[in-house]
Specification:
This protein is mainly α. The protein has one helix spanning 2-102.
């Protein structure tokens, strides 16, 4: 009978140890779930920030293209002005030459 009681006590101790281990695992699982939930929220926030940065970068790229187009247009206008100035200089020289011919 003593052996049965000893086996019963050992089994009880083993069951207590198993219950304690299960409790520890359950608590760790709960903490892990909380951590995973927080991580998910943080990742969603990061994704939102990445989307905002991407939108800002796209807007800046579009503005840069607009600026580039404006600079190109301004350069073409400057070339036209330069050509017009050259024509004016030539016309002024021709006028001076004509005026010199008419002087007696």
């Amino acid at each position: 009978m003593a052996q049965v009681e000893e086996v019963a006590r050992a089994a009880g101790s083993a069951l207590d140890a198993i219950a304690s281990g299960l409790s520890t695992v359950s608590q760790a699982t709960d903490r892990s779930l909380v951590t995973v939930g927080r991580s998910r929220l943080l990742l969603e926030q990061v994704a939102g920030h990445v989307e905002a940065v991407t939108a800002t970068a796209s807007a800046h790229a579009a503005r840069s293209q607009d600026v580039s187009a404006a600079v190109e247009e301004q350069s073409a206008t400057t070339e036209q002005i330069s050509a017009s100035v050259t024509q004016l200089v030539e016309a002024a020289e021709n006028l001076r030459e004509l005026a010199g011919r008419w002087q007696v």
